[in-house]
Amino acid sequence: MGFDLTGLNPKKAKYKSPSHDLYKQDQDKFFKELEKYQNQKGTYFRNNVWWWRPLAKYVILFTQCVPKDEEQCWGYNDNHIVQEEDAKQIAKQLRYLIKTGHTKNFAREWEAKRKKIEKHNEKVEKELSEHTKKVQLKMKDNNLVPRDFPKKDHDKWEKIYSKRNHDGSYPFSVENVEEFAQFCEHSGGFSIG
Q1: CA atoms within 13 A on the CB side of 182
Q2: d(CA 111, CA 103)
Q3: pTM to 2 decimal places
Q4: End-to-end Cα distance, the chain
Q5: pLDDT, tens digit (0-9, with 9 covering 90-100), for 21-60
Q6: 66-86 pLDDT, tens per residue?
Q7: Which residues are registered as beta bridge partners of 191?
Q8: Helical axes 84-99 vs 174-187, angle rounded to 10°
Q9: In sequence order, what E strands does the chain have?
Q10: How far is CA 122 from CA 52, 109, 118, 127, in A?
């Protein structure tokens, strides 16, 4: 799953987004034209869910540009609209945060925390693997998966799995913030889809 942001009125766009009629006629040409269009500043920004969530959180917490009643919308790809003036303010605030070193410090702290979580999760994965092997040996079935474990063993597997911290899967970088600021600045407003 990803978040695809589309500029509403991109500045300096040389190419128009290709029509779906072209897609029906010539798919190769359609995708070449789409790539040209999306590579322009302000037309398109994409993050998978792992990259988007920390970025959205950062924007919400530190730019003060997202109204409280819209914060939740940044967690869904349901085409929430961010108006041009708000997009410009987000870009301005992000550039300030980058310039002052705030973003770099945040990224360093975030990544240090994430690395600790990854080490923790490696231990959990090892424990899951050991438990799985024990159950497979006991049941004499090397292809047995946790959902097919006997209830007691399945419950133990679930208990071990619940120790996993999913925050270890969400990276954050200054470069991603810079790309997003550039997109916001040139987008003319955008939709989060």
Answers
A1: 14
A2: 12
A3: 0.79
A4: 11
A5: 767 777 877 777 667 666 678 889 999 999 999 999 999 9
A6: 999 999 999 999 999 999 999
A7: 6, 81
A8: 150
A9: 2-7, 44-48, 80-82, 190-192
A10: 23, 20, 6, 9
